[in-house]
Amino acid sequence: MAPLLQVSNLNAWYGESHVLHGVNMTVGEGETITILGRNGVGKTTTLRTIVGIIRERKGEIRFAGKDMANVPLHKTAHHGIGFVPEERGIFSTLTVEENLMLPPVVAEGGMSLDEIYELFPNLKERRSSPGTKLSGGEQQMLAIARILRTGVKLLILDEPTEGLAPVIVQRIGEVLKTLKARGMTVLLVEQNFRFASRVADRFYLMDHGQMVADFPVSELPGKMDMLHKVLGV
């Protein structure tokens, strides 16, 4: 079966700075994939290039068999890719429910408000609160939940647990496991190695703008020496 997402020989630039150097990666339908790597090696740039934020790029990006190289950023979601950036992008003057209802439904299969509130009870309690009144953890939940309404097939998360309390990190992990059980495909960048090891099916290890290793979670114990060397974990 062809992968849902296939990235081949992907290069990207910030102006004259060459940041990605031939990234290769595949994500199968229903998989949860985590990209590991130290700060500054190109993890976030990889995500931003895949969704079309970074336009100075070369290489192949195929999603559900379609070439995404020339798809404009505002059309990415309509092809089935949802992106939650590290800064979350919550509209502070809108309530939780208004934020949830803002994105358009782009395909069948998205969650209803009732399903979202069951998955995120905190958001149900705060449904009338403006974005400015939410904690960092609640904002992260809202950013993820907002994508789930749209019906996209691939959820891309950039550092979803950064700066969050352990109880919120645990809840986000539970949510990702629930989404996997529903068939959602997830690609995330994550610094919290313990969190990543609990939710991922497979890992890509990134260094200096390239993927230097790819292995399933079952091989994790045998990869610890390499991870310690590259990540310092």
Q: Please identify the structural class as seen in this structure.
A: alpha/beta
- Main β sheet profile: 6 strands, mixed
Shape assignment: globular
Number of separate strands: 10
What is the percentage of strand-forming residues?
25-35%
Number of domains: 1
Do you know the CATH architecture? 3-Layer(aba) Sandwich
Q: Cα-atom Rg, whole angstroms?
A: 17 Å
- Helical fraction equals 25-40%
Description:
By secondary structure, this protein is α/β, with parallel strands linked by helices. The chain has one domain (5-231): P-loop containing nucleotide triphosphate hydrolases (Rossmann fold, 3-Layer(aba) Sandwich), CATH 3.40.50. 30% of the residues lie in helices and 27% in strands. It has eight helices and ten strands. It has helices at 43-51, 96-101, 113-119, 121-125, 136-148, 166-181, 193-199, 224-231, and strands spanning 5-14, 17-27, 32-36, 57-63, 66-67, 81-84, 154-158, 185-189, 202-207, 210-216. It has a six-stranded mixed sheet with strand order 6-7-8-3-9-10, sandwiched between helices. A four-stranded antiparallel sheet has the order 2-1-4-5, with helices on one face. The longest helix has 16 residues, at 166-181. The relative contact order is 0.19. The mean pLDDT is 92.
